[in-house]
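Exercise 7. Predict the joint structure of the components listed below.
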Amino acid sequence: MKVVVAVKRVIDPNVKVRVKADQTGVETANVKMAMNPFDEIAVEEAIRMREAGTAEEIVAVSIGAKHVQETIRTALAMGADRGIHVSTDEDVQPLAAAKLLKAVVEKEQPQVVILGKQAVDDDAGQTGQMLAGLLGWSQATFASKIVLGSGDAEITREVDGGLETIKVSLPVVVTTDLRLNEPRYASLPNIMKAKKKPIEETTPADLGVDAAPRLKLVKVVEPPKRKAGVKVESVAELVDKLKNEAKVI
Amino acid sequence: MSVLVIAEHDDAELKPATLNTVTVARALGGEIHVLVVGEGCGGVAEAAAKIDGVAKVLVADAPEYAHRLAENVANLVVGLADGYSHILAPHTTSGKNILPRAAALLDIQPVSDITAVISEDTFERPIYAGNGVATVQSTDTKKLITVRTTAFEPAAADGGPATVEQVAGTGDAGLSSFVRADTSKSERPELTSAKIIISGGRGMASGENFDMLERVADKLGAAVGASRAAVDAGFVPNDYQVGQTGKIVAPDLYIAVGLSGAIQHLAGMKDSKVIVAINKDEEAPIFQVADYGIVGDLFDVVPQLEAELDKQG
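Solution:
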């Protein structure tokens, strides 16, 4: 069985993001980049499937300019077998990403596609569901546990009320939630080995996909700032202020 | 122009998130219809018909819609889409599961998690864990949107009676089935609609220690939440998590106990009206957003808080 994982290059989630003064976006020049954390979980899950003997090959796909190959290399260093780089300098929105991934999936014919439940840059949380819809496949979003059977899978999902378990037929698109696993760090020998693993390059045109954006970004501004308040000396003072000053209890 | 709102419910009751989503529909203008999808959801449809401003309730009550599996519900939404300029759902795990799938089938790029309506095609939404607010304009003919419910007031739940119309099911896509739910049972209010929330972080040190927060919560009629660190450590279940990738809350009062205030946590609660921080580290970032802070050991402060609430009544 083959597994395809989609990985996105984003600003490192530990970096404080700054809005550009001209309101056209956020500062990305000289900012540390990383693999989207939910995609790391996706790669890890695929590797565990291979270690368990259910998956034979793992293909990591990323969409974007030349530097997304670094993110593919990270996936290869973690343990993915080969990479596919869909090369474009355009802003790729979730619908376009889903269409590009659909074209890749139709070529690769995996039984399982795993994506992060959201990317921590645009926080849209759409691509997995859209890919499943376009393929006409089952979907299991926000997964915290995957048990693969033959021809189907039982997947536990993190939902607002707690956990929900569903059974899906294969092939399936899964999106990862935080508790699915704890991703491994790539070891130095594996980082060296990853340099020799193949990355195939393709383009939206090769894949026959119109990836033009549908949402126009009008502007990006900073959110209103909260002011730090006061430190109180005692619990009695706190309760008094909540009652008589803030009037919230 | 008319707007379809996908109702949030569990077949037993209509969830408040629906009311906030109707408010967005009202801001857009046009006739508002509410879609109630489920199995045995007639009572929910009646409740939805009472929401102020709603003209019609569409009920799709069929076995294939039990537990609102995304594949079946998306097909239903696609079938109904023709009559609407906008289709809205709350940005809940159910709305997030269904709406993008339906959008893809309609060849539409949806807009997630909106916090303001600028015009019928232009919306504000947070990006980068709320460190930026993007204004985006949709160029699609139809707009499919999920709504950050805490950013909008709820519509009145007791307006005029709307007409209720049954819609035919679209059948079972045969792709997935429900196995079981492990839901947290609690007498306390739901996190996303609670007026007061008390949340614990890694500093709580164990799940048992959350009992302290629960006792305070019960005195205040509050919900109990947690940071990602507390959930990852197994202190409390996943549905307690407040933050960028968990639940977004904006109560009147948010009490943060033993949590440092990582950007990802702040993204989920910084729109609360009043924030209280209790932390022994006076440098903790949570104090930068807190209206009132107490620097101290939570194991001293929280029991004192419980006692003081008793005393001051």
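Discussion. The radius of gyration of chain A is 21 Å.
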